[in-house]
Amino acid sequence: MTDPQNPADPAQQPPANVPPPPADAAYSGAPAAAPAYGAAPPAPYGAPAAAPVPGKTLGIVAFILSFFIQLVALILGIVALVQSRKAGHKNGWAVAAIIISAVLMILGIILFFAIVLPLLTFSGEVLQACQAVDFSGTVEVRGLPVDCSSVSN
Q1: Strand, coil or helix: what is 139?
Q2: Kind plus residue range of the DSSP H or E element containing 140
Q3: What is the pLDDT at residue 89?
């Protein structure tokens, strides 16, 4: 048997055509692992690490205003959407504000022409009919009796 402690023994020497294992790492026969990467570099000076989406706050404001002041909300929603798209982000608040304010504006215009305008023209007709009878008695306007004493001139 050979002595494992004796390096001069030729039976213990590795063959000449096999490269020796690396000196700094133990050779396990497995491929070397990929190097681990560190965290992302910090944000540039003056920039917050997690920058907010441009136009998001304006989109939320436009969404809230879309229920009360539709024209202002429509304009703010479009501005917020343009800001977000330029930065490459989506802005659901701005889209919702645009849709809601546009729908409510259209409904407001329809209601104006369906309710308010006929009431205004009816009151004008009542005033003319009562002027014709010197605001005394009852007149009929559009098939409805109107007491002219309650109409002020």
Answers
A1: strand
A2: strand 138-141
A3: 92
